[in-house]
Specification:
By secondary structure, the protein is α+β, with helices and mostly antiparallel strands. It is about 40% helix and about 15% strand. It is built from seven helices and eight strands; from the N terminus they run H-E-H-H-H-H-E-E-E-E-E-E-H-E-H. It is elongated.
């Protein structure tokens, strides 16, 4: 239920290239006060996108298990079973499992969309030296509380936990150097690198170590000191 609530409020990856990281010379080199603003217009599509990214970032193991089961069923049906009917059934089940790897995320998103009853909010964000403030919500989010910085083609995702995070439209960012400036600013404040949502295709041994890396496995990659 906490997962549903986090998506309703929208207070709410594994690192791969290409993600434009900040030039280390631009981090920590400025002393003047910086302020950024951004907004997010919620809709059915953005809620689905957020839910999918959140699921990919924090529940990759579920998708990996599903993919493994899918492959096992197909292989059993194709090579280990001699009865044609059972063989086709196993292959069919394997395909069904694989095409529904995002089913938990889609289910959650649809529940949240129903709760909004067609009245989707517009969220306004402001970033100061001390934290991120969402208009109409208190208290502000401290940068030390952000554990992952994720981006895709259109949005930034600032996760505080596997259950809570914020989604920001890239084109809405205003402030010094706009999007690049905000990304560098957040990198400086959180000491986290930006990553893209992980997928089964880009999963590797490094990703596996990060996934099962102990109590800090949910946290994103940090800057080297």
């Amino acid at each position: 239920m906490v997962y549903y609530w986090s998506l309703l409020c929208i207070y709410s990856g594994i690192e791969i290239n290409p993600v434009r990281q900040c030039d280390r010379r631009t981090i920590g080199g400025e002393t003047k006060m910086k302020e950024y603003t951004a907004y997010m217009i919620q809709s059915k599509d953005t809620i689905k996108r957020y839910s999918e990214v959140q699921f990919d970032v924090f529940y990759t193991s579920v998708k990996l298990i599903g993919a493994a089961v899918s492959v096992a069923l197909v292989l059993l049906g194709a090579f280990a079973v001699r009865t044609e009917v059972l063989s086709l059934l196993l292959i069919f089940l394997g395909c069904v499992v694989f095409t529904n790897l995002n089913a938990p995320a889609n289910y959650t998103a649809n529940r949240v969309i129903a709760l909004f009853r067609g009245k989707f909010p517009i969220l306004h964000y402001s970033f100061s030296e001390t934290g991120m403030l969402i208009e109409g919500k208190t208290p502000e989010v401290k940068y030390s509380g952000i554990i992952r910085l994720v981006e895709d083609e259109e949005y930034l995702y600032l996760f505080q936990s596997p259950q809570y995070g914020s989604m920001i439209k890239k084109s809405s960012v205003s402030g010094e150097d706009e999007l690049y400036g905000l990304k560098c600013f957040l990198t400086e404040k959180t000491q986290l690198k930006w990553t893209r949502p992980p997928t089964i295709l880009n999963f590797n041994l490094k990703s596996l170590r990060e996934l099962f890396g102990g109590n800090d496995r949910h946290a994103g990659p940090r800057l080297r000191r």
